[in-house]
Specification:
Blueprint lengths: L22 H11 L4 E5 L5 H8 L4 E4 L3 H15 L2 E5 L9 H9 L4 E7 L20 H7 L4 E4 L3 H18 L3 E6 L22 H17 L3 E5 L1 H5 L3 H11 L3 E3 L14 E4 L7 H8 L3 E5 L20 E4 L4 E3 L2 E3 L4 H10 L30 H11 L4 E5 L3 H6 L10 E2 L10 H11 L4 E7 H7 L3 H6 L5 E6 L4 H4 L17 H5 L3 E5 L2 H13 L5 E6 L7 H11 L3
Parallel strand pairs: 1-2, 1-3, 3-4, 4-6, 5-6, 7-8, 7-10, 8-9, 10-11, 14-15, 14-16, 16-17, 17-19, 18-19
Antiparallel strand pairs: 11-12, 12-13
The structure holds thiamine diphosphate and magnesium ion.
Length: about 550
């Protein structure tokens, strides 16, 4: 199908000074305007024209080794920047990325999936074109299940509007979206002039006023009010508003593990990470005994609630999210989370008694190596805690990497990235690519199990190619330790790799083998000093060694089998 000639959608500028806008060009312009400077993926013939356009645009293409890794990278990028994007070919690429996009959906990370597909002109008589699974629409139908909005841009009359609708949904709901362009429409132009749309719909002013009134009265009357802040505060960039509200009213704040680091953990109002019975007892007590709990952007998952050991009484809760607002048993519609927080802040709540929260140590306790002592998970995390600086971001894979990380002290906010709800193995190393591109000034500390590393760790190749310098700590406990505590069997073993030799294969990087506390100390010093490329520490642990948090969790899960 030839590109249609149409008037410029960009307003009054004369046609001669701009190339005519096309579906592909408009998509790239909108993504860039929305803060996307990098796109992750692997090309293929159905998406090559768009790749060429991206290469010639201000957006940088980041070539990965696998499409699911590109999904993890785009997810991490979205968590840091507010919107991420992967660009893959039809089915062989797109279907491979399903798991990581599903994870982004589950954890509210706005990732745009861009994919090509056979041209509309090629589909006549339903030929067996390569990469087709069942119908031409199979990939679209699969993605409908794991995205909040999706479209096939197969008609220039609707394509521009569809791009606006789908991208707006990603921003509104902080969930992945899907856009497919048949390859012969990438260069098609608009049929009628088109303008980019305005922002999010406003709150209903009456509902907002009433909700703020009710919440403010409850908080003012409470003796032990506090805030539980979760992941949406991060996704919607509301950290400053949260702090202004909490500081103005003197409200203590706990976070969940998924929301860990929405507030700097050294802040005097920070109580700790709440995880029901899995977390620190004094934090659980404090949250569960609150007579008015202001839950902001909370996501009530089993992991966040310590496998549902949390005891939160709805009649004492104000539960505000981007999708819903419940105050005790009242429901309010069309009240935006940002407006609600700002409304409460503007009420200048004065609590009767300013509350001083009980606190764990604000800084990591001292750690002195017992030189020949074999490494344990508990001692490893205690040592990692000491090296966290202002300029570091922690990316934890699942398993003991995640549970051990819960007790790390985050000095800066929004520096902890982990798939703490969907818990898909293999997230962390590719996520370091996304976070590194999104925020090159912050060095990543990647904590990853040997099992998870064997899934996607070779994304270190991309890290080497683009000159990123994360410190990757592999917890080499010879297999699936998390599962050993639930049900042991030889299925939990993996073939042991010499992880520290990977730099030799890649031709760059610093690899170090660690068996003792003395070796760990020296290795971390060397890794910190080695800034020109990545460092990889192969830390040997006993297969049955585990952090205290993992021990508690495994006991609970085993009871459910
Ligand atoms: C993609 C994926 N496959 C399987 C699982 C199930 N699973 C949960 S924990 C785990 C073991 C993780 O092993 P490792 O990465 O070495 O971490 P460890 O438990 O040893 O700390 C497995 C296989 C999963 N969560 N994700
Ligand atoms: Mg392991």
């Amino acid at each position: 199908m030839p590109p249609s000639i149409a008037p410029s959608p960009l307003g009054d500028a004369p046609q001669a000074t701009r190339p005519p806008i096309t579906i592909g060009g408009y998509l790239i312009d909108r993504l860039h305007a929305m803060g996307v400077d990098h796109v992750f993926g692997i090309p293929g013939d159905y998406i090559l024209t768009l790749y060429k356009m991206l290469e010639e645009s201000p957006i940088e293409l980041v070539g990965m080794t696998r499409e699911d890794s590109a999904g993890f990278a785009a997810d991490a990028y979205a968590r840091v920047r507010g919107l991420g994007c992967l660009c893959v070919t039809y089915c062989v690429g797109g279907l491979s990325a399903c798991n990581s996009v599903a994870g982004a959906y589950a954890e509210k990370s706005p990732v745009v999936v861009l994919t090509g597909s056979p041209g509309m002109g090629e589909r006549v008589k339903n030929p067996l074109l390569h990469h087709k699974v069942k119908d031409f629409s199979t990939q679209f139908e699969v993605y409908e299940k794991i995205t909040v909005a999706s479209a096939v841009l197969d008609d220039p009359l609707t394509a521009f509007h569809e791009i606006d609708r789908v991208l707006a949904a990603a921003v509104r709901y902080k969930r992945p979206v899907y856009l497919e362009i048949p390859r012969d429409l990438v260069l098609a132009g608009p049929v009628v002039p088109h303008r980019a749309p305005a922002g999010l719909p406003p709150s209903d002013p009456d509902a907002l006023r009433e909700a703020v009134e009710e919440a403010a009265n409850l908080l003012a009357a409470a003796k032990r009010p506090m805030i539980l802040a979760d992941v949406e505060i991060h996704r919607f960039g509301l950290q400053d508003e949260l702090l202004a509200l909490a500081e103005g009213a003197g409200l203590p704040i706990a976070t969940t593990i998924l929301g860990k680091s929405v507030i700097a953990e050294g802040h005097p109002l920070f109580v700790g990470v709440y995880e029901g019975a899995m977390g620190r007892a004094e934090v659980a007590e404090r949250v569960e005994e609150a007579d008015c709990l202001l839950m902001l952007g909370c996501f009530l998952t089993d992991i966040n609630l310590g496998i549902f050991t949390a005891k939160l009484d709805p009649s004492r809760c104000i539960d505000a999210t981007s999708e819903d607002l419940r105050i005790r048993h009242h429901h309010y519609r069309d009240v935006r989370l940002d407006d609600f927080i700002a409304g409460l802040r503007d009420r200048r709540l004065q609590l009767a008694r300013p509350l001083v929260p009980p606190k764990g140590p604000a800084v990591a306790p001292a750690w002195v190596a017992v030189p020949d002592a074999p490494m344990t998970s508990a001692r490893l995390f205690a040592r990692l805690d000491r090296m966290l600086g202002e300029d570091m971001v922690v990316i934890a894979d699942i398993g003991d990497s995640l549970f051990g990380s819960a007790d790390l002290h985050m000095t800066r906010r929004t520096e902890f990235i982990s798939p703490a709800y969907y818990t898909s193995m293999g997230f962390a190393v590719p996520a370091a690519v996304g976070a590194g591109m999104a925020q090159p000034e912050h060095r990543a500390l990647v904590i990853v199990g040997d099992g998870a590393f064997q899934m996607t760790g070779m994304e270190l190749s991309t890290i080497a190619r683009y000159g990123l310098n994360p410190i990757v700590v592999v917890l080499n406990n010879k297999g699936y330790t998390t599962e050993r505590f639930i049900l042991e069997g030889s299925f939990n073993d993996v073939h042991e790799w010499k992880f520290h030799k990977i730099p030799e294969v890649l031709g760059t990087g610093l690899g170090i083998e660690v068996r003792t506390e003395g070796e760990l100390d020296a290795a971390l010093e060397a890794a910190l000093a080695h800034t020109s490329s990545f460092s990889l520490l192969n830390v040997h642990l006993d297969p049955m060694d585990r952090s205290p948090a993992l021990e508690r969790l495994a006991t609970k899960l085993a009871g459910r089998l």
